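Hello,

Our lab assistant flagged a job as stuck in the queue for most of the afternoon. It eventually completed. Since we weren't sure the result was trustworthy after the delay, we are filing this so someone can double-check. Below is the sequence as submitted and the structure that was eventually returned. Let us know if re-running is recommended.
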Amino acid sequence: MNKVFSFTGAKKIVFGTGSLSTLASHIKELNAKKPLVVIDKNLSQAGFQEKVAKILKPEGIKFIIFDKTEPEPRIELADEGAAVAIKNKSDIIIGIGGGSAMDVAKAIAVLATNKGGAVDYLGLNKVPKQGLPKIMIPTTAGTGSEVTFTAVFVRKDLQKKEGMNSPHLYPELALLDPELTLSLPPGPTAQTGLDALCHAIESYTSVNASPLSELISLQAIMLIAENLRTCVHDGKNLAAREKMLLGSLYAGIGLANAGVTAVHSLSYPLGGKYGVAHGLANTMMLIAVMGFNLPAALDKFTDIAEAMGECVDGLPSREAAYLALEAVEALIEDCGIHSTLAEFGIKETDFPALADVAMTVARPLENNPRKVTKDDAIAMYAQAF
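-- returned structure --
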């Protein structure tokens, strides 16, 4: 190994069943008194607002709720939330939910202290200075947004998704309580869990992977492969939920350090133009991209196959590597995901336009172990059709 690498992440991670109860103490540690809690309406209506109130009110911490977040959030929500934070003189932002709520929360935190709007900071390293302190609390085992420096939004005007990427988006605290994932229904459990698997596989095979990120990404693959089926079909199994949330956390750390690959480049247009949920879009493209990348990373795909429980002893390298695709296909099927592009009204004539947009999502393509051309992208869309 002759690679120079760095490793970054959330400033502090607290993981454990019942750890949500420590929220007030962490707010005080950060010398904050007026939180803005960013949460989606469904969670708010499901009693999470009251759950937070029971923890914070006895400690004299008054909070404001911003509950306008939505799946595949519009970029305008970040600006709306920042206006609320500024008006109420919030001094800390707490994101509770899936990736959408946490992405909106992270963006609000930096917009509250930096001039301009969210569109000004799309891209890499465009946020000038630190935002308000951020605590991220995931209620799904999927996106890993609680430990990444990225916030992704839909640009309705352009019918595409774009990301805000800056070290200033790293949370001061990622607070992960597996109990919060117990109420997630089977469908969202499957989609978010497979999203985490995508992150783990992509970060493990990324050309920017390091020995440290590889270690974490491979462990994520193993944990997800061993526990996602149980979480989907026996959602109240706390032991499986704990391991699945840990796998999602590891996948997020791997993603933050090694980056994702062509799966995300190809899935972004599906969400931006057709509204396909992020985890589902990634899942639909995963097998096609894995098959495309396999010849360029036989050893890594063999490792993935082993981590997913396949026996590779004595097999020729390509056969061993191909078992990774079979293992992922089996996991997707067992989780009840059978969606295709055609089901979302996407036509074969749309593939060139989708590929054009995918080719503009440059950073994941640069991380991909095999160079992707527009024709390659069209072929992968055809495979997922």
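-- support follow-up --
The delay was a queue issue, not a problem with the job. The result is valid. Residues 186-384 form a domain with the Dehydroquinate synthase-like, alpha domain fold (CATH 1.20.1090.10). The mean pLDDT is 95.
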